[in-house]
Amino acid sequence: MTSASFWQPALKRVLSVLILALAFAALQSAQAQPSYTVSPEQLQQVVAQRFPRQYAVSGLLNIAVQAPQLRLLPAQNRISAEMAVQANGPALQRSQPGTFDVDFALRYEASDHTLRAYQLKFQNLRFANLQPQVRVWLNAYGPALATQSLQEVVLHQLSPQDLAMADKLGMQPDSITVTDKGLVIGLVLKPL
């Protein structure tokens, strides 16, 4: 037996193991992060369907909240919403237009396959033509208004078709990541 014929089977085994290892690594990386993406346009469309909303404040004030304009905040993994409001009632001399801003995180609700707003942070309420003391009073009410308007608002609902492939693979939605291109919903294996 020559030394070349001695090393050929060993070399073939090493190459076979190396090829299998590379194939396995490529397969793992291709399947490492299965996900589903929801575009900003889809989010805006779903949220717009839930507005306008009306709120009364102790018979003194009525506030109409219009559909928010959503903006993705990838660096914070949150979404901001600017909402136009119209306030009127006995506490005001005339109808007053304004806006308020909030930002929020998202959570997945498995019972109905929805993405919902939570962990709201009220930013500010702006009314250009109001007296300072009325502005202070409205800003004190702002967080409650934001919570009533957006807390647990459904931003998207995954359809059975959206989840069909994940179900076949024994997976379910898990993490939600805000990106410039929309929401990326990570999928994980269902618990046994």
Write the layout of secondary structure elements.
Blueprint: H1 3-31, E1 35-38, H2 40-48, E2 53-57, E3 61-65, E4 69-73, E5 78-88, E6 96-109, E7 114-126, H3 132-150, E8 154-157, H4 160-168, E9 171-179, E10 182-189
Antiparallel strand pairs: 1-10, 2-3, 3-5, 4-5, 5-6, 6-7, 7-8, 9-10
Question: Would you kindly provide a written description of the structure presented here, covering whatever features stand out?
Answer:
There is one protein chain. The protein has 192 residues and is α+β, with helices and mostly antiparallel strands. The protein is 34% helix and 41% strand. The chain contains 4 helices and 10 strands. The chain has helices at 3-31, 40-48, 132-150, 160-168; strands at 35-38, 53-57, 61-65, 69-73, 78-88, 96-109, 114-126, 154-157, 171-179, 182-189. Strands 2, 3, 4, 5, 6, 7 and 8 form a 7-stranded antiparallel beta sheet that branches. The model is unreliable at 14-31 (pLDDT under 50).
Distance from N terminus to C terminus (CA atoms, Å) equals 55 Å
**Sheet with the most strands?**
7 strands, antiparallel
Q: What would you call the quaternary organization?
A: single chain
Low-pLDDT stretches: 14-31
Individual helix count: 4
Order of helices and strands: HEHEEEEEEHEHEE
Give the C-alpha Rg.
26 Å
The shape is elongated
What is the overall pLDDT average?
Answer: 80
Structural class: alpha+beta
Task: Report the strand count.
Answer: 10
User: How large is the share of residues in beta strands?
Assistant: 35-45%
Helix content: 25-40%
